Amino acid sequence: MTRTIRNLALAALLGLSANAAVAADKVSDGVVKIGVLTDMTGYYSDLAGPGSVLAAKMAIHDFGGKVLGKPIELVSADHQNKADISSNTARKWFDEEKVDAIVDLVSSSTAGAVMPVAAEKKRITLLSGPATTAFTGEKCTAYNVHYTYNNWALANGTGREVVKNGGDSWFFVTADYVFGKSLEEDTSNVVKASGGKVLGSARHPSPGTTDFSSYLLQAQASGAKVIGLANAGSDTINCIKQAKEFGITPKQSLAGLLVFISDVHALGLDIAKGLYLTTAFYWDYDDHTRAWSKKFQSQPDNAKKAMPTMVQAGVYSAVTHYLQAIKAAGTDQADAVMAKMKATPVNDFFARGTIGPDGLFRHDMFLVQVKTPQESKYPWDYYKIVKKIPAVEAFPTVEAQKCPLAVKR
Amino acid sequence: MQALFGQLLLGLINGSFYALLSLGLAIIFGLVNVVNFAHGALYMAGAFLAWIGLSALGIGYWAALVLSPAAVGLLGVVIERTMLRRLYQLDNLYGLLLTFGLTLIIEGLFHHQYGNSGSSYPVPEMLQGGSNLGFMYLPRYRAWVVLVSVAVCFASWWVIERTKLGAYLRAGTENPRLLQAFGVNVPLMMTLTLGLGVGLAGFAGVMAAPIYQVSPGMGSNLIIVVFAVVVIGGMGSILGSIVTGLGLGLVEGLTKYLYPPAASTVVFAIMAVVLLLRPAGLFGRER
């Protein structure tokens, strides 16, 4: 009798460990863990931040909370827009907390710090928020997907279309750090290539500038038809507001190179009206975008009842695509998942397109113009779609990106 | 030449804000001996109260110009009565740390409630538009800011330096026990002084609301420069803070014309030089 029991126990133990071994093959550590590393309280917290965490949570919930029979877990942290905090958090997550993928990483300095760590540990980064084009160019890694937009797409969308509509002389007001300068450079190239002229630029310290009048007066004195705002967040907001105050608009027009719907909401239509901008996502585009966005808006965690920005919608779409790739690959092992993500086209409410061998997600973008208060019929009715920019025009080609992994020299 | 005049005028406008804010700080430091690090947060609170008043209760700009500083001043009185008062016997540093903590709490609360992007406050109808001065377009509202700031600054200076009430206040700083012996309620006077200084921050906030985006970080962007102004002018010197505030605005404007990249640091360079040559500041007295 005791012998039978012992044998049974032994058999059960063996069986268990065999099961565990199979599961370990499929899903490392028995859990798929996604980390949202974002700016929770600072400069970018309205356009990413808690809204990105919420979007990731919704994606996991909508996926059923499980993949390959194993639970999906979510962690989040505030990177405070600091490179050292970002890379330290990423190391801790990868080494101690079994995190498989990090998503968001708004602000290029944080993404630039985390990508090499992730590549070294063979974990995945899904960028929604940072803009530096080189993340899928010379700085590309094998474990990175640049999801929502990059500087090239913003510069092309707004730059080319505005020149085409007659805005052929430009002056830039630029945030004096890597992001602003690269955005100015990318846009200048596009403007010149499209037959326009660049008359000059004024660079302001960022963050920390609140009064932009002296830069705007230089722009005004230049006589340029278009003033390109190569900055983001509250810098852009204050520029637009003060341009109106100094009577610059509507004589000269403004082109926001990186403007989010949260910025337009904060400005109000009376001030923002007429502004051209490029976006990857607009909540009121079609039935699918409306359905998802209203769901996002009505979540109890969304205390301000804000509509999603393109960064937040991008987080949802990226996480969903990542989970689907795990399911299709039958494992959460990073190489297999990356291969699946690149092989499978994305087709959801957020975007339709493919992820290239360089890791850049190429999809349609939209050139939009901000409505006037009279044109806006209901809350958050902010944009007129001027043009849908097809993926091939919206993003640089694989060859142009020169990612060493994708282009053999 | 045109550009130079433009930048100088803009410098004067910014200088008016520096003067208005550093005046409040100087009053509080000079008369209550507290280094009020929460000044920027209270300036932000003043702007936010104006915006909340307008969007939730329909209170217009002109009423907000009175109500909002009053509310912020009241908040200052509460802070003084419940917290700051206990630190008067200790080193200045304790008051500084307390108000720094309060700054983080106040900004955190507004951030939690209203988010980082903030909201925009419209320019009041009467002050919309502007005029072309030949060398630049001057929005009417900015002209109003300069006029009001200069008027408020010199009125405060006059009250403190030239009236009987001001004499009591100054006597209270020199020798509170003696003044109390004459039958003046010194603790009450200190409370009211702090309320007045803080109210000035709230007033500057309302003045700033139509120009800058009303957002939780708006005070911390400005407060560092304002502290530099107070240090250059001489800690606690009322006239020093007014003159230095306007003067440094002009210097900043001039730098923007001559060498723009140095515009954000020129104030601190001046501060370093002044501290080396005249540690008590341009208008300060050695104690």
Write up this protein.
- The complex is a heterodimer of chains A (409) and B (287).
- Chain A is an alpha/beta fold and 409 residues long.
- Chain A is built from 15 helices and 16 strands.
- Chain A has helices at 2-26, 49-63, 83-96, 108-121, 151-164, 178-193, 213-222, 233-245, 261-267, 269-272, 287-297, 310-329, 334-343, 391-394, 398-401; strands at 32-38, 66-67, 70-78, 101-104, 124-127, 144-146, 169-175, 197-204, 226-230, 253-256, 276-279, 346-347, 352-355, 361-363, 365-370, 383-389.
- In chain A, helix 3 runs parallel beside helix 4 and helix 8 (233-245) runs parallel beside helix 9 (261-267).
- Chain A is globular.
- The model of chain A is unreliable at 13-24 (pLDDT under 50).
- Chain B has 287 residues and is mainly alpha-helical.
- Chain B is 72% helix and 2% strand.
- The mean pLDDT of chain B is 90.
- The longest helix of chain B has 31 residues, at 2-32.
- The A-B interface holds A 41-47, 49, 176, 202-203, 205, 207-211, 213-214, 217-218, 220-221, 233-234, 237-238, 241-242, 245-247, 262-263, 265-268, 270-271, 304, 306 and B 2-3, 6-7, 10, 13-14, 108, 111, 115-120, 122-123, 130, 136-137, 139, 141-142, 211-213, 215, 217-218, 221-222, 253, 256, 260-261, 263-264.
Which strand-content bin applies to the residues of chain A? 15-25%
Structural class of chain B: mainly alpha
In the sheet with the most strands of chain B, the strands line up as 1-2
What is the count of β-strands of chain B?
Answer: 2
* Uncertain stretches of chain A: 13-24
Rg of chain B computed from alpha carbons, rounded to a whole number of angstroms: 19 Å
How much beta of chain B, percentage-wise?
under 5%
Largest sheet report of chain B: 2 strands, antiparallel
Order of helices and strands of chain B: HHHHEEHHHHHHH
Main sheet: strands, sense, barrel of chain A: 6 strands, mixed
